[in-house]
Amino acid sequence: MNILMVTSEAVPFAKTGGLADAVSALSVALSKLGHDVRVVLPRYYRIDRNKLEHVSGPMGVHCGYQEIWTGVYSAVLPDSTVPVYFIDHEQSYGRDGIYGIPEEPDFNDNPQRFSLLGHAALQLCRKIGWMPDIVHAHDWAAALAPILLKFHEAYSDFSATASVFTIHNIGYQGIYGKHLYPHTALSWDNFYAAGFEDWDRMNFLKAALVSSDKLTTVSPTYAKEIQRPEYGFRMDGILRYRSSDLTGILNGVDTGTWNPGKDKLIPVKYTAKTIEKKAENKKALQKRMGLPQNPDVPLIGMVTRLADQKGVSELFGPSYGSAHRICTEIDLQMVVLGSGEPWCEQELSTLNHTLPNFSAYIGYDDSLSHLIEAGADFFLMPSRYEPCGLNQMYSLMYGTIPIVRKTGGLVDTVENYNEQTGEGTGFILDHLTPQSIYDTVGWAAYAWYNKRDHVREMQIRGMNKKFGWDVSAKQYEDVYKNALLDKKR
Ligand code: ADP
Q1: What domain range is 354 assigned to?
Q2: Which of 233, 307, 353, 389 to pair with 76, CA 20 to 30 A apart?
Q3: Cβ of residue 19 lying under 6 Å from some atom of ligand 1
């Protein structure tokens, strides 16, 4: 099959979150299955033109009020032959930031910027003389491509192309004032309640949910959750209506980067067979974070965006969060790596100064995130919601027992500990409250001190799990086949 991935992020070129990892890894995995996969994204200012190939000739894109002239550049994804095309347009992408910058987190011309991406992705296919069987768009910023295939008469030459839209996080929908709607170049006929319109505003994600042939999201449990009001961010009704077209497929892990047996960013490599060497990494982590180098005390790690989605209010909220109690009442150490909401960064600094067994590093640090996965005994992830989650999978692979909330991809990857039998791979908390985080961390510490054989068995069980992309890529292949079959009916 010819598969076009339309996205606003793809590693190693542009990344703000898991979406960027997923798009590139899935593209490479599908290409290994024999498909002709190509990726298209904007050429943001940070992507150096000198490192790209220029695709000759300007490309005119009919977009809203005007024809926009763009340049096209190309590269390939690392260790693959998957081509990546970059849409170059100074006015739209010639600035810092993918969706925004700290002073303006959501650029006010994002509807224009990402409408251009949708139109340009399809125009690119004509330019390079390559017709996709599947247009696969990821999250709201790429949503216009499938919407255009369904609603815009200028793309009738794509009538045999089926569309797939993946929800990586339904919390981000691309909602803007309707005065910007003309930038999509769609007719006002499509601005109605079962289309683009959302309480008199425009909503990119909603329009893609209505118009794409098939929908996917990044774990089976999240696929069910988003059909409920508590998790659906107001899209639950549409998703229930489209439930027969919605599939949850777990993201894989980039095992080239995340593998304790080969990880170049950790002091001592280890496998399930040599797990005792993990202790050296614990020592190194304690040293780096300025904690006593005590092998006997359980070390709880955390690597996270400091955002409400991650349960940080219940953990670090001033006066009511449970972190202070956890660190003073339970005999353990805790390390946190994260950046995000200012109140939370402030709170972490305060805990840093007041608790001798707590250490936080505020910022983004790739090598420290690897050291935490390798050196910690437990990994805490009390997410409010988690479409898939990567860190709990990294933790399992690194023999670091996850303590997670019962939501989304965390449910699909972690099995709860059974104290009687010793079964399970982690510790699961049901409700997101400061008390239940405290109780579950306490339970993990209890197991550490009293059931060390169980703890070791759980570590090994986790390390033997497989989270590669090959299985997921085959599931996407099935979705594509079904989309094309439906199209022919
Ligand atoms: P999300 O995409 O919602 O942030 P995921 O668990 O799916 O959550 O992916 C987060 C990724 O970002 C992981 O690879 C994690 O290690 C990484 N990450 C998050 N915060 C930091 C940080 N401060 N420093 C280094 N890596 C981080």
Answers
A1: 272-463
A2: 389
A3: no
